[in-house]
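Suppose you are handed only two things: the residues of a chain and a line of SMILES describing NAP. What would the bound structure be? This form records exactly that question and the answer produced for it, so the two can be stored side by side and reused later without any lookup.

QUESTION INPUTS
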Amino acid sequence: MVVEDPGVALVTGASAGIGEEYAKQLASHGFDLILTARRKERLDSLADKLTDKHSIKVEVIQGDLFETSDVDKIAAHIKTIKNLDCLVNNAGFGTDLDFLDGNSDINLFINMLNLHCKVPMQFTHAALPGMIKRDRGHIANISSVASLLFHGYQDPIYDSTKAFLSVFSEVIQLKLNILKSKVKVKAICPGWTVTEIHDKLKNFDRSPYAWMNVDEVVKIALDAYKSDDIIVITGDVNVQRVQKSRKEARETPGRYFYY
Ligand SMILES: NC(=O)c1ccc[n+]([C@@H]2O[C@H](COP(=O)([O-])OP(=O)(O)OC[C@H]3O[C@@H](n4cnc5c(N)ncnc54)[C@H](OP(=O)(O)O)[C@@H]3O)[C@@H](O)[C@H]2O)c1
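ANSWER OUTPUT
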């Protein structure tokens, strides 16, 4: 990825996993950073390392994106950044609670809906006008291959919130294309990626899946920085999974009604 005169990149969920790796790779490309998450000590330590290693500025904003006041505060801050070139809507989490079980906590699913849909929508709304005006910038919405694969073993809320992110990104980019804008909005769709997200799931068996590391995933995502492609599926193995699942869905009776 080559970006001339990189400005500021804001990364949500920068205290771990894919967000932390985005921060590292964006820093190596010369972006100044705004890093946000709840665990401030991790953000401070990452900020210290990145400012030591690269000649960049790093600002840390502690915020809990389940809290409307923190989301509003960060959205208001985004509107004030004159040279915001990159927004990475990455913060997210998984769950093994069963939506179909009446005893599962609805508040957890509401938090997931807000974190995966409302927050990226609000931050994109705050960032886009400035980017469109300057005719440059990139928004990466960290979705998932789960947004493109549908079968009964998946999680209804995680997958549908990620499907929102993919469709949201695609439609905004199509509108930007009509405006002939150079601003890029992408849905980044990783498959199984080694991070902390699965550690919080009880009885999660890592063995059956094709795992990728965060550095490969973020490199692929950033290689697509200026491309015209909107849905970025990271890795051949994941592209094949999506193609197979789409074909099966089309061909399985009882899924789609064609008249
Ligand atoms: N790993 C995978 O296999 C995979 C695959 C496809 C898509 N993804 C997506 O990739 C994104 C990053 O996940 P990851 O795998 O890197 O997970 P991770 O290692 O668990 O990191 C999640 C990040 O989100 C932040 N976060 C979570 N809840 C938050 C809240 N309420 N407020 C603010 N920040 C919050 C966490 O920070 P704090 O806890 O410090 O707040 C952390 O920095 C997610 O959107 C996930 O759905 C992951």
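WHAT STANDS OUT: The chain has one domain: 8-251. The two ends are 46 Å apart (CA to CA).
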